[in-house]
Amino acid sequence: MSEGGIRLILNGEAVTASMAPGGVVLDFLRRERGLRGTKEGCREGDCGACTVLLGERAGSGMRYRAVASCLLPVAELAGRHLVSIEGLDGERLSAIQRAIVEEGATQCGFCTPGLVVALTGFLLTSPGLGEEDAMEAIDGNICRCTGYASIRRAVRRLVDGLELEPGALETRHEALAAAGLLPPLFAGIAARLDALEHAPASADAGGIPVAGGTDLFVVEAARLRKERLRLLSRERRGEPVSEEGNLIVLDAASTMEELRQSPLLEACFPSWRRFLGLHSSTLIRNRATPAGNIAHASPIGDMSVVLLALDARLQIGRDGERARTVALDRFFLGYKETDLAPGELITRILVPRPAPASRFNFEKVSRRQHLDIASVNTAFSCTVEDGAIGTARLSAGGVAPIPLYLAESSAWLSGRPVSVATALGAAERAAAEITPISDVRGSADYKRRLLRRLVLAHFVTCFPGLPQEEIAHAIA
Ligand SMILES: Cc1cc2nc3c(=O)[nH]c(=O)nc-3n(C[C@H](O)[C@H](O)[C@H](O)COP(=O)(O)OP(=O)(O)OC[C@H]3O[C@@H](n4cnc5c(N)ncnc54)[C@H](O)[C@@H]3O)c2cc1C
Ligand code: FES
Ligand code: FES
To answer: 6-195: which CATH topology?
Structure first.
């Protein structure tokens, strides 16, 4: 990072951040710049009070993302456009602010700046501009006062009043500014960023690898403030999702939201978008990466469990060396222990394209729908030939020290007829194959029962022709 600090455009002004690159943007705004509209709630990505927009050059225009500033390293700001609530606050109320005021969707006001910024992110980035799209965009913004009914009314009022075709994402900021839905500072911002002189953001090979930072900055923010960082977001190799022969290739540094929005993944794995929507919230998915989920090796990592069932392989390498390929089901060696050697990075994730008659399902039980990690999660994929299961892969999280590929249950399933008896047999075998422990998320016995039921749920979803009452009876 340059001696002179990190250059960015903050709202409408070109500025230099002098804070440590490993400090977080929330502190940069509140302490260094005195912009206190961005609120500090949890500092763990959980509440959305600190939401900001991060804009970067993309193609002929810009790409914005709503992110949690409490988990965003200052180093990420180099050469980018940072928008805080102050940048959205003009002399007159914006359409978003008006809708919130008119529907009484603010009481103490603590969550309101985050909501306004997240809804601006919705206008800037959502492929669809409907009420449910807007509600999805604020799934990471918690309000302790309003009970959400008035927030939904405000969202409805906002989208009903929009006279705007969604248009191309890269130039949407210009269209919104021209329509008066965004302040004038967004007009011409791409050219201003191009003209901004700044040192390249850290690609420091010796630094701590940070992808989205949504695991790292929750637990290690104090240490990271003093460390050199290697920003993997600045080392993107290509498209988030691409195809190579019979493989679907995920760039390891793609974000979970990019993967969720991928038409190719949705076409290959029905309900993919819904499944990935169960991971965290929009704010977190806008930064979190699949490689971070895997390398963190949490026993309940949603993406690890999904990719185990999809028979994914990892490409792993050091700078300048030829990458090696490791099957994901051999990557996790013990609790938070992986096959990664020091200095190695996951670069790509390879997923076999599913055969035409394949099934896939993901189930997750957590204490609340958004912003919560699983008590138990599980994924299932199989091929089907002549009324029988061909190859099957079953995985589960929260039931062992690692995200677990259930090898024995998967082998048992292969070749079995698609029937209620097979569903029940698989559920029993899966429950016998795991070694859960009792913790805050439930007793070992509860987790075993949960997995049994979730395996039956895989069969209900994947094989709707099976007698559902019989399975429901077994679940009860
Ligand atoms: C509010 C909140 C809610 C969450 N909800 C969920 C949830 O529902 N489900 C879930 O599974 N997780 C959840 N998480 C956890 C987290 O978002 C995910 O694990 C995420 O995928 C981590 O990715 P990241 O890019 O942010 O990782 P980072 O924090 O950047 O990195 C995590 C670790 O991986 C290493 N690393 C990163 N990239 C690579 C690479 N390419 N090669 C080698 N090592 C690498 C880093 O050095 C670090 O040790 C949540 C987190 C928060 C804050
Ligand atoms: S302060 Fe709660 S998400 Fe950042
Ligand atoms: S208005 Fe008080 S937290 Fe939302």
So the answer is: Ubiquitin-like (UB roll) (3.10.20)
| 110 pocket-lining for ligand 2 (C-beta < 6 Å) | no
Q: What is the pLDDT of residue 2?
A: 44
pLDDT band for position 369 (50/70/90)?
Answer: low
Residue 21: pLDDT above 80? Answer: yes
Tell me the CA–centroid distance for residue 77 and ligand 1, in Å. 20
- So what's the pLDDT on residue 371? 61
Residue with the smallest CA separation from ligand 1 atom 3 is 280
Which protein residue's CA is at the shortest distance from atom 19 of ligand 1? 293
Report domain extents, the chain. 6-195, 207-216+232-354, 356-476
Q: What is the 3-state secondary structure (H, E, C) of the chain?
A: CCCCCEEEEECCEEEEECCCCCCEHHHHHHHHCCCCCCCCCCCCCCCCCCEEEEEEEECCEEEEEEEEHHHCEHHHHCCCEEECHHHHCCCCCCHHHHHHHHCCCCCCCCCHHHHHHHHHHHHHHCCCCCHHHHHHHCCCCCCCCCCCHHHHHHHHHHHHCCCCCCCCHHHHHHHHHHCCCCCHHHCCHHHHHHHCCCCCCCECCCCEEECCCCCHHHHHHHHHCCCCEEEHHHHCCCCCEEEECCEEEEECCCCHHHHHCCHHHHHHCCCHHHHHHCCCCHHHHCCCCHHHHHHHCCCCCHHHHHHHHCCCEEEEECCCCCCEEEEHHHCEEECCEECCCCCCEEEEEEEECCCCCEEEEEEEECCCCCCCCCCEEEEEEEEEECCEEEEEEEEEECCCCCCEECHHHHHHHCCCECCHHHHHHHHHHHHHHCCCCCECCECHHHHHHHHHHHHHHHHHHHCCCCCHHHHHHHHC
Highest CATH level, class, for 356-476: alpha beta
Predicted TM-score (pTM) of this structure: 0.95
Nearest bound ligand to the CA of residue 368: 1
Q: Select from 3.30.470.20, 3.30.465.10, 3.40.47.10, 3.40.50.150 the CATH code of 207-216+232-354.
A: 3.30.465.10
Q: Which ligand 3 atom sits nearest the alpha carbon of residue 144?
A: 3
User: Which ligand does the CA of 48 lie closest to?
Assistant: 2
**27 CA distance to ligand 2 centroid (A)?**
12
pLDDT in tens, 339-348: 999 999 999 9
pLDDT in tens, 111-151: 999 999 999 999 999 989 999 999 999 999 999 999 899 99
